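User: My collaborator sent over this chain with a note saying "see what the structure looks like." That's all I know about it. Can you take a look?
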Amino acid sequence: MHKGDIDFITLGCSKNLVDAERVMRQLEAAGWHCVHDAEEPKGEICVINTCGFIGDAKEESINMILRMAERKKQGKLRKLIVMGCLSERYRAELEAELPEVDEYYGKFDFENMVKQLEISKSRNLETTTCSSFERHLTTPKHYAYLKISEGCNRMCSYCAIPLITGRHTSRPKAEILDEVRWLVSQGVKELNVIAQDLSSYGLDLEKRHLLPELIDEMAQIEGVEWIRLHYAYPTDFPEELLDVMARHANVCKYLDIALQHCTDHMLELMRRHITRAEQDALIHKIRERVPGICIRTTLLVGHPGETEEDFEQLKQWVREMRFERMGCFAYSDEEGTYANKHYKDDIPQEIKDARAAELMAIQQEISAELMQQFVGKTERVIIDRQEGDYWVGRTQYDSPEVDCEVLIDRCAQSQKTAALKDKRRIGDFVDVKITRAEEFDLYGEIVER
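Assistant: Without extra context I'll predict from the sequence alone. Here is the result:
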């Protein structure tokens, strides 16, 4: 029985997206029709999955709630539900300030939405149950995000994540591997492994690092073409993972590891529990043991106490390290964090923004130089979509939506390739000879075998 349409709007990170996909699958099993991120929501119920990480994300979430509340006021929406990080952290305040919302759920009770909507009463529960890891995949069919843990114990000075998600909790390895097999059965070829802290996976289960073992077993599952790792932590990094990455061709030579800063002064203020020397040694070890690896990192500028000398050293460090991929954020003073309680937010916003822009300008130059090294090489590329006359894909060195792309001109192929171009499907792997490079994109031609 079709009970009606529910619009889901997901804000924030891929970890939020996985939560939305799980609850959508449960709702669909109970008879609802779920639509994700529609350009213009039209369902009778709207669920907003919020982000509460930094100021801009919180503002975006509030604005979306207000927008949908207005739609409800106009009679275009019967029920408005809010879930996710913002309501996990500020539920009482939101309930007081935004009574237009019918129900609030946080990060860990959102599955009760199914019960609260009373959608199981008219159906046989045996026919509506689904595995806890099954999801309504909202990504293109060929890739998915795989969340292996929740929470973080690191307590960095600036970060609100532990206040929202709580202590680090690893999912059982057997359950994750079952989910991988299910995803493969759904047509998924590329698994983007995510967590707030990959490095700690398994410590709460067996008091040892289980990430190398998990990835090793994942890589041996038939149908897994690519595995990509996101959000490792440099302190107490499981170095055995590097051997796994080097050994398996389907483990992408890609590691997302947030480093945040480089001076001992700032690393201490940020409570990163690592020194410049230790951090540099780890970077060199990663590159030595996994030749050709792409390191993606994130840096933070404008943290309380950051001096001009700290920033100058950071710029020089970025030039020396030549990260393949890099992002930069300006410090946001988040309520309840260590920095908020113990430091004064003493750097003007315009200086924070200027530092972030200057650092990204340096990275743009580095990226332009590194990308030129691909010209003339042939890379394995997965096709994500078609845009006009181009197939748009990615190499193993690029994560969906955040990294570089490969553009393949469908009209510029050889006669043989052109004859086959319309048979290309999104999700196919193809060999592409790179013919041109820009700062953040590559151009190439398909090499037919």
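A starting point for your reply to your collaborator: Residues 349-372 form the longest helix (24 residues).
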